[in-house]
Amino acid sequence: MSEQPYFDTVNTVEYYVGSAKQWAFFHQKAMGFNLKAYAGPETGVRDKVSYLMEQGNINLIFTSFLNHNSPIADHVKLHGDGVRDISLKVPNIEETNEYVEKRGVVKPGKIETVKGDFGKVKRSVIPTYGETVHSLVDVSEYDDKVPPGFEPTDIKEKSVGLKRIDHIVGNVEDRKMDTWVNYYIKGLGFEQLITFDDKDISTEYSSLRSKVVQYNDRSIVFPINEPALGLKKSQIQEYLDYYNSPGVQHIALETDDIVKTVSELKQRGVEFLYTPAKYYDTLADHVGSIDEDIEDLKKNYILVDRDEYGYLLQIFTKPMGDRPTFFYEIIQRKGARSFGKGTFKALFESIEREQAKRGNL
């Protein structure tokens, strides 16, 4: 990308949930996040509560409502617990908004300024698929890591080794994927990275199509999925049925030692999709030499794939809430820049086993 970057990185991901306190507690105790800051009635916020969680460079906010006529309550009633806002840090919000508006696809919201003890934060909002939004956040005139309106806490937890967001995946309706890919490319200046069709991602029962867009040498990476016609219901369609709209399917969190991270997460109670033992019988034939002990991968159900740059290891949690919608991916990259094309069939079969248990395949 030759022009100056107008977007830096994913700043925070905010979830709207039924109980922010419970989601924060789970992420602290089960996933090794620190409770970085809190906002609620005790800090002067009257209509909601928010918990800001941190691990490595990952910042998550869990927000819940305090009265039944809140738009947050409406969101949770319709969608269940899920991601509302993928906030993007920008170097200069006036320049970014002008750049986006000139591209003629989306009009950014009005720039709002929030003042705090450490300066001011500027913010505007643009829509994306479903009811998901991107807050554009400029912190160039703010000198603290805790946002205005939040009060810092001192509740630490032992990290499980999660260090950054690798990518965030959105699910959209059939035949809408290209519309949203073009939205990011034409509207925001992203570039298309890779495409998977229903021949790449399928089993005998179901399939999907996916395209990946990225910004500024993969500083921000958004795969976008749509369901494809199969003999039975796609996992993407199951998501859309339960979320009642397009939305964020999963967030991939990167670690430098996936065996250690996943082992710790399992001990803390995080549930992962099962991979049959037979997958590992021919793993070496498919991916060649790897540093990890295959028995360790087998014990933890970790998948492996290789591309021209190296290999990656990945695993997927079961849904994090009551509905079969949002989940996490844990990923370690050993040079690979792809997304696990060679593991898609094994992954899909694992997901289909869970769908069958729910009667939704």
Automatic annotation (TrEMBL):
GO terms for molecular function: 4-hydroxyphenylpyruvate dioxygenase activity; identical protein binding; metal ion binding. It is found in: Cytoplasm; Endoplasmic reticulum membrane; Golgi apparatus membrane. GO terms for biological process: L-tyrosine catabolic process. This is 4-hydroxyphenylpyruvate dioxygenase. One of its GO terms (cellular component) is cytoplasm. It is a peripheral membrane protein. The keyword Repeat applies. It comes from Oxyplasma meridianum. Keywords: Cytoplasm, Dioxygenase, Endoplasmic reticulum, Golgi apparatus, Iron, Membrane, Metal-binding, Oxidoreductase, Repeat. Homodimer. Residues 9-139, 164-318 form the VOC domain. The gene is hppD. It is an enzyme of class 1 (oxidoreductase).
